[in-house]
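Annotated sample (chain length 318).
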Amino acid sequence: MNTPFSRARLILNPMAGRGRTGRSSETIEHQLGLVANTLDVVYSKNVLDLRNLAAQARRDSVDLVLIAGGDGSVHHAARGLLEESLGVVPTLGILPLGSANDFAYSLNLTQGWWQKPGWKLGRVDHGWIQLDQNPSMAFVNGVGLGLNAMVTVRSQKIGWLRGIPLYTAALLQSLFWDWRQQCWNVSINYQPMEEFSKAEGILALSVLNGRREGNFDLCPDSKTDDGLFSVMVVRPMSRFRALALLPSLVMGTFQQRKKSLLFKEGTQFLVESPEGIPCHADGEVIAVPGDGIKRVDIRLVSKALPVIVGPSFSFSEG
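Output written by the structure step:
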C-alpha cells in the first residue's frame, strides 16, 4: 500500500452530527484502507474521553490520528494531541461528519476524501487561549467572543437543524436575546487597537485560524499556515441593520460590509473587560457571561500541527 502512515487510530464520536457519525461507523471503518497500513478503532464516551483518547494515541506513538465528527470533536481531539507533552505530535486527519465542519473546510477536506487519491500532508498553525489565570488550552480553527459565543450557546439548544440553517436560527435568537454592546480593551501584538473607542464598544470579535465560524465564511482569504490569525470585529449596529446584513452573511459576502466591520491580522490578542466575556473555541463554549471571565489572551503557534489536507489545498509561501 502506498501510504506514508504505518499505524493509524480512528477515534469516533458516535454523537457527532446529531448521531450521524455513529450510524456511519461501520462503513467508515471499511473505507479507510487507503489511508494507513493498519488501523485501530476506538469510541469516545464523552468529550473528556475523546481528549484522553487522543492524548493516549500520542503516547502510543501512533503516526496518524483520524477524527470522525464535527468541529467540537476536532477541538477536543486536538487539545489531547497538543496539550499532551509525551511523544511526537501525530498527523491529524479529519473525517468531516459534524453539524459544522469549519476547520475541515479550511483544509479543503470534503466528505469522503479518504476514499479518493490526491490528499496531501502539511503543517498548519494552531492557537492557545487563556481565560484569566486558568491553564491555557489549545484550539485549531478559531475563537469567538461576545455575540459569536452566544450564538454557539443558542445553537447547542437546537436539536433539529444542522449546518447553516442551524447557525442562522441560533443567530436570529441571539439578535433578540443577546444583543449587547461589549466595552472591551483590545490589543493586537501588544499594541492597543485604536480603530474604535472603548465607549463605542464591540458586538462580536472573531479570531480565526481558518476561514469559517459556525458555517459562515467570515474570512475567505484566511490561511491556516501563514503564521497569522485573521480577526474580524463587528461594530455596534441596530438589530434592523443586522437583519439586513444576514443574507450577505449566509452568501459569504459579509466581509465586504466595511462600515460595519473591521479586519486585522496578528499573532497575539488580548481582550480585557470589567464584565464577564462570553467565549467559544472551535465552536465549544468555554465561558458565558456568568463565569465572570475578564481577561482573554490568545496567541498563535506557527506550523506546529501536522495534518492531512485536500488535493486543492494551497500552501502558503515560506
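Annotation: Residues 205 and 292 are 18 Å apart (CA to CA).
Annotation: Helices lie at 20-23, 25-31, 47-59, 71-83, 102-106, 147-155, 163-177, 239-251.
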